[in-house]
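Researcher: Structure prediction, please.
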Amino acid sequence: MRMTEQLVGLSLLALMAGCSTMKSLNPFSAKESKTPPAALAEFKPSLAVRTVWKQSIGKSGAYVFSPALADNSLFVAAADGALARLDAASGRTIWSIKAGSELTAGVGSDGSVVAVGAAKGGILAFDGAGKLLWKGQASSEILSSPVVGQDVVVVRSVDNRITAFDAKTGTKKWTVLRTTPALTLRNAPGMTISGSNVYVAQPGGKLLALTLGAGLPRWEIAVGEPRGATELERVTDIAGTPVVFDQDVCAVSYQGRVGCYDAATGATRWTKEQSSDVGVAVDQRFVFAVDEKSALTAFSRDGGQSAWKNDKLAYRRLSTPVSYERAVAVGDYQGYIHFLSREDGAFIGRISTDGSPIISVPVIAGSNLIFQTQSGTVTALAVE
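Model: Predicted structure follows.
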């Protein structure tokens, strides 16, 4: 969920209760109302973008649902309980079910197990054919997508409790509780499984690495450190999902920094001042980050030097970017997907979807680039 659209909780208790209406405490609403989104700039396309297939899964509502890729399949979900497995290449529906509950987060899958967050902190796990394996219960609401790997399902609830379940039986394996700042944003910091570790984005700007087997902390670092005289100024939650690439794990925080760290030790590779409300994209050469004003910057992955910056999409509430072919692609609040040159940030292509915001994390499946909108359109694109 976008930080500019999120609800601010005064305490952990308020977060657990759901924080249904606290707009007056949202430090971003006034700023956004005074600064209209930039108009779409005209340019001569140099990249041919086409739609390969489209499917409709259902609306996300007040939640964020990102597709999960595994075994050449795409797993998608919606707030009303719709859950489906699609062929990633063709978009063909392999199976489609109703989960039996409204959903709040998902999807996580390794192809054999499919996990989603359900209403009131419920956890539902299905097998690769869509058959229910088990039901679990978290200590509070689940907004972050579960992650599945190494025979475990890892879930983070809004009280900042990270819990691992046996993927086949649902037996609880371990739980780790981290403190939550008194004032935090109702967002969905992500998790990534890589090797024997799970990397967990945290409120308060912390990035935590845990062993999958026992939940033991390998390291914990501060991507962003709270600063300022007021609690609002000190909000510095990590945005989006940390990305593991080669030996690095890279992340960004709101009112904090963007940086890359040694995935094994947490040692800092480099950091730069940055404030973002969505996650980063990483490729062999660059780390791409969108700041709170929707400017997209490419940083050198080796040392963090700024390679280019494009601010022509100002306040268009951009999604997490993705490095794809010779472009970096990003969605916006009107459902447009913009393609910028990886080399210099110039616009090279654009395509529209269904007109609703794109908030979820994009996925690359073979030659297809896949976005899911808040209205539930799952679109696979290709370039020529």
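Model: Residues 95 and 129 are 7 Å apart (CA to CA).
Researcher: Thanks, that helps.
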